[in-house]
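Case study 2.
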Amino acid sequence: MKNIYILLSLILLGCKSTISSVGETASKETAVESNYLVEQNEVSDFLKYLSSDELEGRETGTRGIEKAAVFLEDFFKENNVKPYFSTYRDTLTNFKLPAYNIVGYLEGSDPELKKEFVVLSAHYDHIGLLKNKQDDVINNGANDDASGVTVVAEMAKYFAKTKSNKRSILFVFFAGEEKGLLGSKSLVQKLKKKDFNLYAQLNIEMVGVPMKRDYLAYITGFDKSNMAERINQYTGKNTIGFLPKEAEYELFYRSDNYSFYEAFKKPCQSISTFDFENFEFYHHPSDEFQVMNIPHITKFIQEFLPAVTQITTTPTQEITMTK
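Prediction:
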């Protein structure tokens, strides 16, 4: 998250909600495919490579982030997620070196709703190598934000397999976030020219470790839309809560959701579990795979899938701006 230390059962058709979690089977009545489980080993493998020393901290414009870009392109290909542009690579227009957002696309199944888009995003860049000499100079960025990329990738895999989205989904891995939200700023200008019909954006930021609170995650700009309320309605539990520190530090303006909000004035918010108390390695070489809580990340994905599914399938746009 730039310069600063955010879905389980759906509403059932006349049936009692069933909450799905890691190790449990999703209810047949929910919009999540029956028996679909997020595989913990796949979450682990994906995150482990993306935060590995081989990628040298994934600084935008370096050979390390180029390896990450190839890895993400291959992931989309293997899971039958189409490129939104002519290729998966969306070249940044505001950075001096070659740099790319990686953008995938799944068309919605409904003839009308597919004209609307839900954006699921996370930034895959980080801050690279330390300049001073010490034992560990690689800022691996496991929590910031390989964890968010892993969540979005697992969601892409799910929707590509189940084809359960009535609205179209854009899956975006941003470069240049750590340079000043450059990837998202570049992309929104192109989407605006295409008359992109945005419904909502869920941007996933730093979800590698759990909070000790009575809710799973918080959302930035809590009072700017009814997104938190709707997500909790869709999951039937207290999935999203309000974190006072988020408001104090104005995190709504500090991640890639803000570029989309500024361009489209639609519900565009980041979701995180970093609460300023549970993780001490922000922009630090110790932000490594070994300190990530894989069961927590897996549970996070499993719990959010039904709510994201609901966001992509409701007949009307139930998430709206409040201010």
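The longest strand covers residues 100-106.
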